[in-house]
Amino acid sequence: MNNTAQYDVVSIRNDFPILGKKIHGKPLVYLDNAASSQHPVQVINAVKEFYESGYSNIHRGVHQLSQDATRAYENARASVRGFIKADCVHEVVFTSGTTESINLVAQSYARPLLKIGDEILITHMEHHSNIVPWQIVCEQTGAVLKVVPISDAGELEMDRFAELMNERTKLVSVVHVSNALGTVNPVKKIVNMAHAQGIPVLVDGAQAIPHIPLDVQELDCDFYAFSGHKIYGPTGIGVLYGKEKLLNAMPPYQGGGDMILSVSFEGTTYNALPYKFEAGTPNIAGAIGLGAAIEYVQKIGLGAIAAHEHGLLEYATSELKRIDGLRIIGEAEQKAGLVSFVLDCVHPHDIGTMLDAEGVAIRTGHHCAQPVMERFKVPATARASFGMYNTFGEIDVLSEAIRKTIGMFS
Q: Which of 88, 138, 345, 368 is catalytic?
């Protein structure tokens, strides 16, 4: 039952137009938030208003529309800075999402630093976006990728983490919350362990940003990456936070407009932070939408959202464990936002299809985390992931739909 009685989920749901939609004649139960969250009308209207009455390119124009658009874009950056508690706006780089943010660090920070025999340390629970960029940079430099294993519960083996850090380790890159297991990793402890040996740390915060209050200064990570569409904002916009001294020392990731101060055929002078890393016309509407999403989340309160979602997670875990033939994949002590599971008699893709017929939207597959699937010896899982607008009643619908699916296949 709901232990967050003061949380007005009905009012919140009214802000999300899509939640009134019917799928196959059934009310939509949207439980695919780990893939992408839905958008409140406040975000939709902010983007719509920009395109209808405020659109212009930014930074270059002296006319009113350009100045207004520039102000709105930079106000969004200031909103991000406040939300993650960065020291200054220069530490907030807009990207297309978590994937580009990690690739930026791989190519701009790691690649110039690495030499043959150096090591990058990641974990077995990483999303492909926090694996492949490091494989690429290792191929480019002769560095070696090392991997921290995970336990049967879906938790990092922290003793092995400590053992794998050494003088050859040049960077640790770790997910804050696993998208396939829901595990919340002890990132503060990891940062402290790495910094004790002078090793910088990148945190993939794509799944954490909508669930866990963040203070990058208190966490003391060197880089933090996340995507707007995970936190009720638009797609195609993301953030790389980096400590100012590190970003200043890094060469540009891409060349083009707005990342320069002057260009001649003899040479180019690069722009200051954060524009040095924002080549070309950016996703202006996306940034404005992200700013609106952050304002919306802050109005409700991330602490209240986290408490509500934790109640959903506990209830869903309890209810799903009551279903014969269902096995939850990943039962870490600290989890956030999702439950991955398999059924004895039904392939996950069939689960997804059957649940869709009941109006329930979940994700099935390897979740761009194939090494996790291999670790647990399953081809795929079904994943129900929660957002601020989900209800306990929707979990009841999910449970009943799973039982119906089992009945049909058995």
A: 368
